[in-house]
Design goal:
alpha+beta, OB fold (Dihydrolipoamide Acetyltransferase, E2P), eight-stranded mixed β-sheet, aminoacyl-trna synthetase
């Protein structure tokens, strides 16, 4: 019976065949131990010379790392094994012999591993991170579908910037200028006016010359927009969403978290509601801690980490100064110097994972913002139309997938949280 390592527990004491690769091996006299992987998981195959014969045992001992094989054997329950099972091998069929596989069990430098990213993905650690990433994506669709959201796909090629910044990748769109999208938000607002509650999930691009462990040039964003929803209601959606994906990872990725040696107790504590601190209070807190920062300045990584360390859950920093936030954010009803927005800061030094706000719904005020930010009405006229024709209170946010994967999986650098990272000095492979 053909099966996968993930499903092997359904066939205890039965003979099964799995197709896979040899991750590693060791032998002791007349027994060989094969570490096998098939994409769904890892399992040990035990080959006993007296039980399989000379030819099969010789093949087992000569197998090279990453050679592909069909392995047949009896499934045994084994509490000592990470997966709870191992395979008593009865037969091996070599599919393809790998020669001089470059990533050996010894230590390799980061640049070497990045040059061989297409192979590094096969390792146990990278396998675990990618499966956690997949679970977060699966749980995201489940959460928003259950909440009545509609999935909408905004364009990747745009004629303007969502946030009016210059960190854009420019290209030619036939005889026009175009840019790779840095956010689908503006288009999602249009979709929300048509469909009520919407979300997108796709790649975004920032031409930001940053080398920190939190930054990628190409990354994926989940961006919900919600009509008839104010800022506080949006915060509740955000904390419920983050709580939901963490519970899904804890439930469905137990083996992967164990392989990464993640402290799951810290994740188990992450349940809504999350604490909130105003920008004003955050500045006072940092100044009391000895940080040199003035009101009106944005927070850097050390500031966010200090604020996060004061809480045991993700923390919302609310109501930032208008001058350091995007043009579309709605002013606070009682203050014209701050806006109705929040950044969600993850614990353990992982920084901002969500940025969100209530959007301006008044056409005249938005037009004023265009003028303040030197935005062309030729490029942004369609966005102003959303306020001219049936404007409503609406809010939205964006969650950066890779930072979220890094936090939940306990991975230090975001380059390991995406299959093929695009970094400041890396476009290969």
């Amino acid at each position: 019976m053909k099966t996968t390592i993930k499903e092997i527990g359904k066939h205890v004491e039965q003979s099964v065949t799995i197709g896979g690769w040899l991750a590693n091996k060791r032998s002791s006299g007349k027994i060989a131990f094969l570490q096998l992987r098939d994409g769904t998981g890892f399992i040990q195959g035990v080959v006993v010379k007296a039980e399989v014969g000379e030819e099969t045992f010789k093949l087992a001992k000569e197998l090279t790392q990453e050679s592909s094989v069909y392995v047949t054997g009896i499934v045994r329950a084994d509490d000592r094994a990470p997966s709870g099972f191992e395979l008593t091998v009865t037969g091996i069929e070599l599919i393809h012999e790998a020669v001089d596989y470059p990533i050996t069990p010894k230590e390799h430098g980061t640049e070497f591993l990045m040059d061989h990213r297409h192979l590094w993905l096969r390792s146990k650690r990278q396998h675990a991170i990618m499966r956690i990433r997949n679970e977060i994506i699966r749980a995201t669709y489940e959460f928003f579908n259950e909440q009545g959201f509609v999935k909408v796909d905004p364009p990747i090629l745009t004629g303007s910037s969502a946030e009016g910044t210059t960190n854009l990748f420019h290209t030619k769109y036939f005889d026009e200028d175009a840019y790779l999208s840095q956010s689908g938000q503006l288009y999602m607002e249009a979709a929300a006016m048509a469909l009520g509650k919407v979300f997108s999930f796709g790649p975004t691009f920032r031409a930001e010359k940053s080398k920190t462990r939190r930054h990628l040039i190409e990354f994926w964003m989940i961006e919900p927009e919600m009509a008839f929803m104010d800022h506080e209601e949006s915060l509740q959606v955000q904390e419920n969403y983050v709580s939901s994906i963490i519970q899904s990872v804890l439930k469905n990725c137990e083996q992967e978290l164990k392989a990464l040696e993640r402290d799951t107790a810290k994740l188990e504590a992450i349940k809504a509601p999350f604490p909130r601190i105003s920008y004003d209070d955050a500045i006072s807190f940092l100044q009391e801690k000895g940080y040199e920062i003035e009101w009106g300045e944005d927070f850097g990584a050390p500031h966010e980490t200090a604020i996060a360390e004061a809480h045991d859950k993700p923390v919302f920093i609310t109501n930032y100064p208008k001058d350091i936030k995007a043009f579309y954010m709605k002013p606070h009803p009682e203050r014209d110097d701050v806006v109705l927005c929040a950044d969600l800061i993850a614990p353990e030094g992982y920084g901002e994972i969500i940025g969100g706000s209530q959007r301006i719904d008044d056409a005249e005020l938005l037009k004023e913002r265009y003028d303040e930010h030197n935005l062309s009405e030729d490029a942004y006229g369609w966005y102003l139309d959303l306020r001219r024709y049936g404007s409503v209170p609406h809010s939205g946010f964006g969650l950066g997938l890779e930072r979220t994967v890094a936090w939940i999986s306990g991975t230090e650098h975001v380059r390991e949280t995406i299959p093929f990272p695009r970094l400041l000095n890396r476009l290969y492979p």
